[in-house]
Amino acid sequence: MKRIVQFYIDGFRRMTIGRSLWLLIIIKLAVIFLVLKLFFFPDVLGSLSSDDERAEAVRQTLTERSR
């Protein structure tokens, strides 16, 4: 197991172009998830003021999906 881990660590150390590609992939994933969260998953519970309103919103959502 130690040899396998050492193999991958050594491979990542010797990368030249691969590092910039991994950085690009990580940046793209972060942007994609940020856009998805902002536009497709709104913060419905944050807009409600009391715990009772939040509980009712969760209750309605769960009962609507189960039908």
Structure explained in plain terms:
This protein is mostly helical and 67 residues long. It has 3 helices and no strands. The radius of gyration is 22 Å and the shape is elongated. The model has no long low-confidence stretch (mean pLDDT 86).
Strand content: under 5%
Q: Residue ranges: pLDDT <50 for 5 or more in a row?
A: none
By DSSP, the count of extended strands is 0
For the sheet with most strands, the description reads: none
> N- to C-terminal separation?
49 Å
Number of helices: 3
Order of helices and strands: HHH
Structure classification: mainly alpha
Shape: elongated
Mean pLDDT: 86
Q: Rg, please?
A: 22 Å
Q: Give the proportion of residues in helices.
A: over 70%
Question: Concise description?
Answer:
This protein is mostly helical and 67 residues long.
